[in-house]
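Can you give me the bound-state structure? Components:
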Amino acid sequence: MARVALCLAVTGCTRAADAHVPAGAVITLAGSTSIQPFAERWAEEYAGGRIIVQSGGSTAGIKAAHDGTADIGMSSRALQPAETAGLVETVVARDGIAVIVHASNPVRALTYAQLRAIYGGTIRNWRQLGGPDAAITVITREDGSGTRDAFEQFVMGASHEITASALVTAYSGGLRKMVSQDPNAIGYVTFSQLNPQVHALAIDGVTPTEPSIASGAYRLQRPFVFLTRGAPQGAAQQFIAYVLSDAGQRIARAEGLAPVTIQ
Amino acid sequence: MMMMIARTRTWMATAHLSDAVIERCLQLAAWSAVTTLALITLFILREGMPVVFDRGPMAFLGDVRWAPTRGHFGLLPMIAGTAVVTAGALLIGLPLGLAGAITLAELAPMKARLVLKPMIELLAGIPSVVYGFIGMEILVPFIRERGTLGGPGYSALAASIILGIMVLPTIIGISIDALEAVPKSYRDGSRALGATQWQTITGVVLPAARSGIVAAVILGMGRAVGETMAVIMVAGNAVQFPGSLLAPVRTLTANIALEMSYATGAHARALFATGIVLFIVSLSLNAIAGRVRSGKRASFA
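Here's the bound-state model for the whole set.
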């Protein structure tokens, strides 16, 4: 047993030595489960040190940055004024939330007000939106999901709630499949989940595309924010610089995120 | 001679020792199962009870809204959803299962029985995600498109049908045991009085096996209440009292599985509270089934 442990320890050391990691240059990221997979991609490609990525949700990420339990906190929502104290926010990418319908649906554009009425349960038939006479199948993500959180924040606002009769699924991929099977369905997924089987609606006249998300013209989007206590320093600063570099942003784009436009 | 006696003594002493060791190990194994159950119970209660005390049981059993991130923890729609889906599953599974069990135990020739019984047992071995997938790909679109019934397809009906099939091995297996436990003399007596085979089955065998069949139904019910994956995939999971069989519903199990991954704080503890309700329901069903079955054994002893 002891020998096995020793072997593991030795291999661990060798691996670390291979990557030319200076002693102590391990940085920890914690927070948003939406950012986690992308952060892991960046960590994989990053050559400057070992990155540990933990999830736990945006709120936990903000708290971790405050407490210093993580070098970088990850939040997939903009911070409330009370939360920002002492923290420096760096937007590292933008994630669009696309509202999707079946590819055969003639309705191709909605306003925010119409979207709110559909999810609020007051518009229930596609006919009211210029489509066929068919009941709308409203599909949403589960309570607690970051995508749902962003959707509620931007579309529903504080005063409106998603109707209790909406179908609920816990997976982006599952939601897309449900929409692709039902000609009368409507749902929302992150931009990276779009595929030709579903159609992304224009909202208030703007279609979600990489440029429209990056420029902010498509408003249904959320920032992916890295948080540090004070200005980022040392290893954390190097990693953030890498994420914002051309190479880092190329990875973001390849994974379906919109890059940040650096002024 | 003396040597031999001495040797036998040592051998016996070792044998006694190894017996004792094995006995201890078996006892340990048996108790570990009980301990696990006790630990699970403790854990669920420890995680779930504080929030129940904190907000009062009525926050869970008196509220009709479930919006944990907005402070609503009503479990009633999910309790209703579980009840509807379970009742639907029994409505489908009970006639089919009972008919299957009677066929296999009383009517089918030996050859057919040898083929059918293992195949029904195989049904129990199919992973629930496969049932769910078939439901999602075939049953849900069928309900949505073929019926003049309407609705999104993801519904209490879809979940009931899938669960109705999933409870079949439980209902058939235990019912067959119950029917086979009825002594042959009962059947012989009935036939000797001039009753037909069907009269014998309905008038003598079924009543004699009643408690076992009831146990089969209750255990099937437990299976339906506890099933998660297949239900999540076809039930639609909307938190509402089902207005019709075609409306989407959420069950207690689905509620936990859907929201566990991102839940924090009171939300997570509310899911454990959901677990407490589920735990009580399942445990009661198993206890009732056990009571009914042991009653049956006593009557044939």
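A couple of observations. Confidence is low (pLDDT under 50) at residues 1-21 of chain A. The longest strand of chain A covers residues 87-102.
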